[in-house]
Amino acid sequence: xxxxxxxxxxxxxxxxxxxxxxxxxxxxxxxxxxxxxxxxxxxxxxxxxxxxxxxxxxxxxxxxxxxxxxxxxxxxxxxxxxxxxxxxxxxxxxxxxxxxxxxxxxxxxxxxxxxxxxxxxxxxxxx
Length: 127
What we know:
Blueprint: E1 12-17, H1 20-31, E2 34-38, E3 42-46, E4 53-58, E5 78-81, H2 85-94, E6 98-99, E7 110-113, E8 119-123
Parallel strand pairs: 1-4, 5-8
Antiparallel strand pairs: 2-3, 3-4, 6-7, 7-8
C-alpha cells in the first residue's frame, strides 16, 4: 500500500529577530540571494539555493540567544556549505557576523554568530 505524504515542500523558515529587515539583508548578502520583502515587522530573504525563503519577524521582547549556554538557548541553527571555509568566514565577518568562541568542530566547520545572536555554521565542501 502506497501512501502520499501530505507535506510536499518546505517553503520558508521563520526566525524571530530584533530587526527583521536588517537580518533579511544579512542572510541575503551571506548567501548571494536577495531580499524579497520588507514590511514593518517582517523581512524575507531568498537564497540562491532552492526555493525556501528565510523569513524574519521582529519580536517585541526579543532575547538574544547565548551560544553554547542555555540561559537564552539558540532554539535552532542554520548550516551553510561554503566552497572555501576561510573565505566564507571572512565574508560572514565582513557582513557583521562574529565567530563563536567555542568551536566544537575544530577545523571541520565554523560556528558563527549573526548580528542578532543566532548561531549558524559554515561547512566546507563535502569530500
